[in-house]
Amino acid sequence: MSALEVGLVVAEKSYAVSRDSLVRYAGASGDFNPIHYRDDVAESVGLPGVLAHGMLTMGTAVQPVVEWLDGAGDDAGVLGWVSDYQVRFTRPVVVDPADGAEITVTATVGALDPEAGTARIDLRVSSAGQTVLGKAQVVVTLA
Q1: Residue 30 φ/ψ region, left for φ over 0, alpha for ψ in the -120 to 50 degree band, beta for the rest
Q2: Candidates 3.40.50.2000, 3.90.1860.10, 1.20.120.340, 3.10.129.10; correct CATH number of 9-18+55-142?
Q3: Would the N or C end of the chain have less CB density within 10 A of its end CB?
Q4: pLDDT tens track for 4-47
Q5: What's the CA angle centered on 25, arms 21 and 135, to 5 degrees?
Q6: pLDDT tens across 56-104, in order?
């Protein structure tokens, strides 16, 4: 924990989301709501287009933290594990039929608790230049 300090960016990454990604996620999750794959249905209910599943967005957003904790394949070993994760959904991720979408995540140390051996990692999650998850925080227990 001594190498960590509040304000340190521990991970930054962008992820492509395509319509294929949405179909695969629907199959894995069982969420076949047509707003996730049909433009006509999404638009008929007032949406700007097909939306990524909220849980897909949430799962994608924590991935850079998981990779960081895993040591990103280096010889340092596992740094810790996710012990709590919470977000607020602020905007949907609209997935264009041709270009898809991109989710960008920056993970920054927000707080340290040396006594508990934990760190709070704050996530900045955006797509198309807008924040899509608010108050996204990951509590990690350090090994």
Answers
A1: left
A2: 3.10.129.10
A3: C
A4: 999 999 999 999 999 999 999 999 999 999 999 999 999 999 99
A5: 95
A6: 999 999 999 999 998 755 566 688 999 999 999 999 999 999 999 999 9
